[in-house]
Write a structure and sequence with these properties.
de novo design (two linked rop proteins); three-stranded antiparallel sheet; eight-stranded parallel barrel; 2 domains
């Protein structure tokens, strides 16, 4: 225990003693000198306060309630200090909050209703306020966890049911609108950061010259309008990928483009690279710096004109050229070859096609790292063949496993939901198992060659930690945030630190590939 913590503990004990003595004295005055004036002066008549009808609550003097309050706080404080239990600390937070609220209310009564002050009552109010602040300072980390739990409770009880009644794509578009607006308001960013951001030195990751505050990023597919870079650092993300962005604007596939499978913890996705095109995105974010690293995901324009291999490659190359010539300050690129919702039968999965694409991109001499977004529905041998090709291109920094789940027979699907599901493919839990298998495969065979980013089905710190131990250096998520709430990023980061400490790791890099 540090000196600071010892001083805070001592201050809390002294405040509890003062509060208990103060409440004891007021109890004595109430029962044995009810008509006496305990003080007349600048603060007013204490006796007037003690004789008022507001000095009794549920037939019991407020002074006695004060004794109960301080006794309860002392008891929970003792249990919290001895056991370190988060449960007792939350009871302590709750109890001191009650004390503060009632103190504020009774102070209001003295000022505006009774018209007189009792200095002993004011002392109790000051003591309650002091305890409220000091206990939260002493157990600051636990209090932050408690705040996140309250946000989660509100989200799941009130907000999520409303969101899930509304059309999924409407909610998505509203999220982008309000997210972009929030990112432009410093007070909102500061408020979000205060409650949702979590930083720890054990979680920092460095890839090349770029430092990431934590390994949790927003995956490509959610922010195809570059709406979130301003607000996401305040929500706790360590980075994000914008896009996927194509050379030309694209409306995507026909509606419906988005759906939900609540029991399967999945989203049905059929966006088809819906985005406003490279030119508009460059104009929107060119020259801007954000509070964390960000990347740009690039893929072919989802139109019939790019349906041949040569035209698709040229389209992708043109998009890269536009970003390379622009003043967009992205830290990396993603090459999305794995979206399963595009028009036509063109595929970059065959090794020869993939080689042609990477050769064309290689000629650009990209100034920033490149990650290839991989499919998860292919067999191990097919993935090995793709990795073998990618590994020959030194400009490729790493791979991302992976994209959406196409296999509707995956055991994670709830039968009645998958039977009714429309056109599209699936994020969330249905992608979790296969993503993990491929992360492990890639790390076993190319762990020294590639930086691996794990994506698919991350809902908890345990999910994230499993991908890390299988070989992922960085992580990406979308669906887990939508189902669990915006506080989930901080909860995952907090949980990762706890897992690292339990397993004896001093830094997250030490855990990468531990189970591979």
């Amino acid at each position: 225990m540090s000196k600071r913590e010892k001083y805070l503990q001592l201050a809390i004990i002294i405040a509890l003693i003062i509060g208990f003595l103060d409440a004891s004295y007021l109890t004595y005055k109430h029962f044995f000198q009810p008509l006496a004036t305990c003080h007349i002066g600048f603060f007013g008549d204490c006796g007037t306060v003690l004789r008022s009808k507001y000095s009794i609550m549920f037939g019991i003097p407020l002074a006695v309630w004060g004794l109960v309050q301080y006794s309860a706080v002392a008891y929970f404080f003792w249990l919290s200090s001895v056991s370190g239990s988060a449960f007792y600390k939350r009871l302590l937070f709750f109890q001191t909050a009650i004390g503060l609220l009632f103190s504020l209310y009774f102070t209001y009564l003295q000022i505006y209703v009774i018209g007189s002050f009792c200095q002993y009552c004011l002392l109790s109010a000051i003591t309650s306020t002091f305890l409220y602040i000091t206990i939260r300072t002493l157990f600051r980390d636990d209090y932050h966890s408690f705040i996140l739990a309250k946000i989660e409770f509100i989200y799941k009880l009130i907000l999520k049911p409303v969101f899930f009644v509304l059309p999924a794509e409407f909610v998505h578009e509203q999220a982008m609108f309000w997210g972009e607006l929030s990112g432009k308001i410093p007070a909102v960013r500061s408020l979000f950061s205060r409650f949702l951001d979590y930083k720890h030195s054990m979680l920092s990751v460095k890839i090349g010259k770029t430092a990431f505050p934590n390994p949790i990023g927003l995956a490509a597919g959610y922010d195809y309008m570059a709406a979130f870079p301003g607000i996401l650092p305040s929500v706790g993300f360590g980075y994000q990928t914008i896009g996927t962005i194509s050379n030309q604007p694209c409306d995507g596939n026909a509606v419906p483009r988005l759906g939900r499978l609540p029991k399967s913890q999945s989203l049905l996705v059929n966006k088809g690279f819906r985005n406003c095109g490279a030119d508009e995105i460059i104009e929107k974010i060119g020259g801007k710096k954000f509070g964390f690293p960000f990347g740009v995901s690039i893929g072919r324009t989802n139109i019939e004109e790019t349906g041949t291999l040569e035209k698709a490659i040229d389209d992708i190359v043109q998009a890269f050229k536009k970003f390379e010539k622009s003043n967009v300050k992205n830290d990396y690129y993603e090459l999305n070859i794995s979206c399963p919702n595009l028009k036509g039968n063109l595929s970059f999965y065959p090794p020869e096609n993939l080689k042609k694409l990477l050769k064309a991109v290689e000629k650009l001499k990209l100034k920033k790292p490149l990650f290839v977004k991989m499919p998860i529905e292919k067999t191990d041998d097919e993935v090995r063949a793709m990795l073998k090709v990618i590994a020959t291109f030194k400009f490729v920094t790493g791979v991302i496993f992976g994209n959406l789940q196409k296999n509707r027979k995956d055991k994670s699907f709830h039968t009645d939901e998958i039977r009714k599901a429309g056109k599209g493919n699936f994020s969330g839990k249905p992608a979790f198992r296969r993503s993990n298998e491929l992360i492990r495969l890639a790390y076993q065979e190319y762990g020294k060659r590639f930086i691996i980013i794990g994506c698919g089905g991350i809902f908890t710190a345990e999910d994230a930690y499993r991908k890390i131990r299988y070989g992922a250096t960085m992580l990406q998520m979308i669906t887990g945030m939508i189902f669990e709430g915006p506080q989930r990023i901080a909860q995952i980061n907090r949980g990762l630190v706890e897992h690292l400490k339990i397993d004896g790791f001093k830094h997250i890099s030490e855990a990468v590939g531990a189970d591979a």
